[in-house]
Amino acid sequence: MRNGYIESLMDKLRDECLNLYLFRNIYEARTIISKYIDYYNNERPHSSIGYDTLTHFDKKLYTIKL
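Request: output the structure for the sequence above.
Response:
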């Protein structure tokens, strides 16, 4: 697994977003994918970081580094 993090993201994007929609045009695809990425980063719990969100986990790391 050379790009494990990217492969995982792409798997989730495909399974949780792309397979659920039949996009009518590129603009609709961009809008829905953008919303999914926002959800993925800010709301979706990630098991690899203790079911925290990426945004919250990043804030905790930043606080620890200071």
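The mean pLDDT is 92.
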